[in-house]
């Protein structure tokens, strides 16, 4: 995967818990810094652990996921030269 990550061009949403005791947040950082997509949103959660979708931040995770897919769908329909509300390039949020 490390060798090919730069070949990924699709919009990406990367969510990771800072206190994850199974996978290091460095993995999310690696993907965010090395993925080939220009549309990357990375969110680090302070109040959850390994399984974000059922943990303390599950509602935020669901909202961000829905917003990501809505934004990705809208970004593809934006005409050249117009600004859309799609995914922001290489954006990092901490929740």
Largest sheet: 3 strands, parallel
Our measurement of the CA-to-CA distance between the termini, rounded to an integer number of angstroms, reads 27 Å
Shape: flat
| Beta content | 15-25%
List unreliable stretches of 5+ residues. Answer: 77-89
Whole-number radius of gyration?
14 Å
Q: Order of strands across the biggest sheet? A: 1-2-3
Describe this structure in words.
There is one protein chain. By secondary structure, the chain is α/β, with parallel strands linked by helices. It is built from two helices and three strands. Mean pLDDT is 83; it is low at 77-89.
In short:
With 95 residues, this protein is of the alpha/beta class.
Topology record:
Layout: E1 12-17, H1 25-34, E2 40-45, H2 58-75, E3 91-94
Parallel strand pairs: 1-2, 2-3
Q: Key terms for this structure?
A:
three-stranded parallel β-sheet; 95 residues; alpha/beta
């Amino acid at each position: 995967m490390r060798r090919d990550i730069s070949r990924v061009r699709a919009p990406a949403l990367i969510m990771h818990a800072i206190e994850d005791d199974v996978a290091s947040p460095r993995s999310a950082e690696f993907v965010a810094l090395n993925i080939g997509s220009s549309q990357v949103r990375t969110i680090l959660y302070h109040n959850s652990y390994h399984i974000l979708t059922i943990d303390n931040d599950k509602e935020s995770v669901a909202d961000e996921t829905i917003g990501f897919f809505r934004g990705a769908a809208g970004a593809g329909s934006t005409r050249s030269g117009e600004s859309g509300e799609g995914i922001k390039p290489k954006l990092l949020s901490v929740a």
